[in-house]
Amino acid sequence: MENSKPYCPGASPYNKINFHPKVKAACAENRTGRVGLKICKAVIVGDVSVGKTCLVNRFCNDVFNRDYKATIGVDFEVEKFQVLSIPFTLQIWDTAGQERFKCIAASYYRGANIVIVAFDLSDEQSLHNAPKWMMEASENADSPIKFLVGMKRDLLSEAAYTEIETRAMAVASTLGAEYWPTSSKTGQYVQEFFFRAVAMVFDTNLIRELDASTVPAKQIGSGMIQVQRENSQLYEKKKKSQCCK
Ligand SMILES: Nc1nc2c(ncn2[C@@H]2O[C@H](COP(=O)(O)OP(=O)(O)OP(=O)(O)O)[C@@H](O)[C@H]2O)c(=O)[nH]1
């Protein structure tokens, strides 16, 4: 069981650390409608070689590959979770950063519930390009929850990291995105970040569903946002590649 909080409350437009009382009540009463059945979609975009595929591989398969193989078009993974005891499925779409594959990747932005703009903490240009990626990916997404994720934290000294963090948080603020620094090599903050994204999208989607439905919610106390990964032995893990690396 993990609590879900932003990396830094000052670097997030989302101040939730508790599920909405309506959401807690609906889950406790098993009144979650289609939310447990609907598959949510996250897309990861960003410059070439910033580490998008490594982030997905670290989270989904707990592996890290030092060799670079460009993503051709898009690739995706499916992860299952338990959120407040409700099964929840997330599709994670890993897109190509190379310009020549952009038109293929862009067609997969449609309907995304989570947009993750990745940049390399050791490559300032990739941070400068983040707003362009956010604009393109969010245009066709579905009122997405936005994240700006710095990658390769392990390559930076404390001093170098502190310098880039200030600029990254400023960019995140202008984008209306929550900021996270990660390392797929060491695994630092990878799970915390994805659990946070899942908790946020679950809460947001369920509130929308409940507001749209006529059944009144019984109010019960709020609790810390909690997300658990599904027991992989209970569910067959679905994995499908659109294009391979
Ligand atoms: N040191 C370090 N290297 C990393 C990390 N994440 C990725 N890399 C390296 O960065 C290179 C690119 O990683 P990828 O994950 O393939 O990059 P990508 O963003 O998916 O690249 P495209 O698919 O071409 O857009 C590889 O050599 C990785 O080993 C990290 O956290 N730390």
TrEMBL record:
Predominant localisation class: Golgi
Concerning SMART domains, the annotation shows: RAB, RAN, RAS, RHO
Give the record's membrane topology.
Lipid-anchor
Which Gene3D superfamilies did the record assign? P-loop containing nucleotide triphosphate hydrolases
Q: Which GO terms describe its cellular component?
A: Golgi membrane
Entries under InterPro entries matching the protein: P-loop_NTPase (IPR027417), Rab (IPR050227), Small_GTP-bd (IPR005225), Small_GTPase (IPR001806)
Q: Which reaction does it catalyse?
A: GTP + H2O = GDP + phosphate + H(+)
Which intervals of the chain form a coiled coil?
none
Provide the cofactor list for this protein.
Mg(2+)
Q: A single Gene Ontology molecular function, please?
A: GTP binding
Family statement: Belongs to the small GTPase superfamily. Rab family.
Q: Per its database record, what is this protein's job?
A: The small GTPases Rab are key regulators of intracellular membrane trafficking, from the formation of transport vesicles to their fusion with membranes. Rabs cycle between an inactive GDP-bound form and an active GTP-bound form that is able to recruit to membranes different sets of downstream effectors directly responsible for vesicle formation, movement, tethering and fusion.
In Swiss-Prot or TrEMBL terms, this protein is called Ras-related protein Rab-36
| Provenance organism | Pomacea canaliculata
Lineage of the species this protein comes from:
Eukaryota, Metazoa, Spiralia, Lophotrochozoa, Mollusca
